[in-house]
Design a protein that fits this description.
By secondary structure, this protein is an alpha+beta fold. Helices cover about 15% and strands about 50% of the residues. It has 2 helices and 15 strands. It is globular. It starts with a helix and ends with a helix.
Amino acid sequence: MTTSHAHALIAALATAGASGVCSAQFIIDTNVTGITGGSSVTNTQYNAINFSLTSSFSNVAVEAALYTVNGAGNGFAYLTTQVGPGTNASHVVATGPAVFVGGGYKTLFSGLDLGPGSYWIVLGSTGPDGAIQLSSTATYTTHPNASVGGMYFSASGIDAGFAPASTFTASGLGNRLFRVTPAPSAAGLLAIAGLAAARRRR
């Protein structure tokens, strides 16, 4: 590949990025200097995290730092476009299990294609001992086309049949530990390979 071809490839990638589908090493990442506690995720209290995107991202994974205070625990996770009374199945983007065991990040969803809009991560448990780690000093690093909204919990107004329809209240305990990351797109991998080949031939 010649230098001019490499430049053409870079221009093509820039054009692809401008078309509205973004690729990045992270969309949202939590910066933590120390864990200061956790917010309960149980059968009587749910947690919700809000974030927003202003462009489309492909092959997205969502993770949260879950743990349990008494052995392993099973729970559930939703990704929705709204929460609160009136929320229904049409607002659900993805759903899956949430495992409360040990510590560290657990994958809640993967392989998602997310467009511009507001999203909610809703966490609940079938038992009394789950939690999501938080830190009063945690901050978030975000892609230019992403932002973090608020942290919420639902200790009253629980909808046991459909957690996202519960009534959520803003939480002042601290920022929850979560991250949203895309896998490299096939086009991005091909571009990297092409640029590496161009450098080898110089």
